[in-house]
Known about the structure:
- This protein is mostly helical.
- The chain folds into two domains: 62 residues, no CATH class; 55 residues.
- The chain is 58% helix and 8% strand.
- The protein has four helices and three strands; from the N terminus they run αβββααα.
- The protein has a three-stranded antiparallel β-sheet, with no helix packed on it.
- A hairpin with a 6-residue loop joins β1 and β2.
- The radius of gyration is 25 Å and the shape is elongated.
- The chain starts with a helix and ends with a helix.
- The relative contact order is 0.08.
Amino acid sequence: MRAAFDRGVLRIAPASSYDDPSLNPAQVDRRGRTETYVEVQTSLLADEHLAYLWLLFSAEALDVKGAVTELLDASKRFAGDLAVQLRDRIYKEVVPRLARAIRAISIAVLTASLRLSV
Length: 118
Protein backbone atom coordinates (compact mmCIF):
# COMPACT_ATOMS: atom_id res chain seq x y z
CA MET A 1 0.00 0.00 0.00
CA ARG A 2 2.87 2.40 0.77
CA ALA A 3 4.32 1.99 -2.75
CA ALA A 4 0.95 2.77 -4.33
CA PHE A 5 0.67 5.79 -2.06
CA ASP A 6 4.14 7.01 -3.06
CA ARG A 7 3.33 6.64 -6.78
CA GLY A 8 0.13 8.67 -6.29
CA VAL A 9 -2.18 5.75 -7.07
CA LEU A 10 -3.80 6.10 -3.66
CA ARG A 11 -5.12 9.58 -2.89
CA ILE A 12 -5.06 9.13 0.87
CA ALA A 13 -3.19 6.61 2.96
CA PRO A 14 -4.64 5.81 6.36
CA ALA A 15 -2.10 5.04 9.03
CA SER A 16 -3.08 4.02 12.48
CA SER A 17 -1.90 3.22 15.89
CA TYR A 18 -4.06 2.64 18.91
CA ASP A 19 -4.27 6.24 20.07
CA ASP A 20 -3.60 8.34 16.99
CA PRO A 21 -5.02 7.30 13.62
CA SER A 22 -3.95 9.59 10.79
CA LEU A 23 -4.55 10.34 7.10
CA ASN A 24 -1.79 11.34 4.72
CA PRO A 25 -2.76 12.81 1.31
CA ALA A 26 -0.74 11.32 -1.54
CA GLN A 27 -0.61 14.55 -3.49
CA VAL A 28 0.72 17.55 -1.68
CA ASP A 29 1.24 21.04 -2.97
CA ARG A 30 4.26 23.06 -1.89
CA ARG A 31 4.28 21.59 1.59
CA GLY A 32 5.78 18.22 2.33
CA ARG A 33 3.82 15.20 3.48
CA THR A 34 4.80 15.87 7.07
CA GLU A 35 2.87 19.16 6.96
CA THR A 36 -0.15 17.81 5.09
CA TYR A 37 -1.92 15.26 7.22
CA VAL A 38 -4.75 14.77 9.68
CA GLU A 39 -4.17 13.06 12.99
CA VAL A 40 -6.63 12.40 15.78
CA GLN A 41 -5.52 11.73 19.31
CA THR A 42 -8.40 9.60 20.50
CA SER A 43 -7.41 10.01 24.14
CA LEU A 44 -8.19 13.73 23.82
CA LEU A 45 -11.43 13.27 21.87
CA ALA A 46 -14.57 13.91 23.93
CA ASP A 47 -17.40 11.37 23.66
CA GLU A 48 -19.63 13.86 21.85
CA HIS A 49 -16.97 14.24 19.14
CA LEU A 50 -16.42 10.55 18.41
CA ALA A 51 -18.38 10.93 15.16
CA TYR A 52 -15.34 12.73 13.76
CA LEU A 53 -13.55 9.39 13.63
CA TRP A 54 -16.21 8.10 11.23
CA LEU A 55 -16.17 11.39 9.30
CA LEU A 56 -12.43 11.04 8.67
CA PHE A 57 -11.64 7.34 8.66
CA SER A 58 -14.64 5.49 7.23
CA ALA A 59 -14.59 4.02 3.72
CA GLU A 60 -17.25 6.56 2.69
CA ALA A 61 -15.11 9.42 4.00
CA LEU A 62 -12.11 8.22 2.00
CA ASP A 63 -14.10 7.91 -1.23
CA VAL A 64 -13.22 10.32 -4.06
CA LYS A 65 -16.40 12.31 -3.31
CA GLY A 66 -16.25 11.72 0.44
CA ALA A 67 -15.90 13.96 3.45
CA VAL A 68 -12.09 13.95 3.39
CA THR A 69 -12.03 15.31 -0.16
CA GLU A 70 -14.53 17.98 0.86
CA LEU A 71 -12.40 18.89 3.88
CA LEU A 72 -9.23 19.13 1.79
CA ASP A 73 -10.98 21.30 -0.82
CA ALA A 74 -12.44 23.56 1.87
CA SER A 75 -9.02 23.79 3.48
CA LYS A 76 -7.48 24.99 0.20
CA ARG A 77 -10.20 27.62 -0.19
CA PHE A 78 -9.76 28.73 3.43
CA ALA A 79 -5.99 28.99 3.02
CA GLY A 80 -6.43 31.02 -0.18
CA ASP A 81 -8.88 33.39 1.51
CA LEU A 82 -6.57 33.68 4.50
CA ALA A 83 -3.64 34.60 2.23
CA VAL A 84 -5.68 37.35 0.56
CA GLN A 85 -6.78 38.73 3.92
CA LEU A 86 -3.21 38.67 5.21
CA ARG A 87 -1.89 40.44 2.11
CA ASP A 88 -4.61 43.12 2.38
CA ARG A 89 -3.89 43.65 6.05
CA ILE A 90 -0.17 43.97 5.41
CA TYR A 91 -0.68 46.60 2.68
CA LYS A 92 -3.39 48.51 4.51
CA GLU A 93 -2.04 48.42 8.07
CA VAL A 94 1.57 47.28 8.29
CA VAL A 95 3.16 49.07 5.34
CA PRO A 96 1.71 52.51 6.22
CA ARG A 97 2.85 52.13 9.86
CA LEU A 98 6.29 51.03 8.72
CA ALA A 99 6.53 53.98 6.32
CA ARG A 100 5.56 56.43 9.09
CA ALA A 101 8.12 54.89 11.44
CA ILE A 102 10.89 55.07 8.83
CA ARG A 103 9.96 58.68 8.08
CA ALA A 104 10.00 59.59 11.78
CA ILE A 105 13.39 57.96 12.30
CA SER A 106 14.78 59.63 9.18
CA ILE A 107 13.60 63.04 10.38
CA ALA A 108 15.08 62.40 13.83
CA VAL A 109 18.42 61.35 12.36
CA LEU A 110 18.52 64.36 10.01
CA THR A 111 17.57 66.73 12.83
CA ALA A 112 20.28 65.31 15.10
CA SER A 113 22.78 65.49 12.26
CA LEU A 114 21.95 69.15 11.61
CA ARG A 115 22.33 70.00 15.30
CA LEU A 116 25.77 68.40 15.38
CA SER A 117 26.94 70.22 12.27
CA VAL A 118 25.92 73.67 13.53
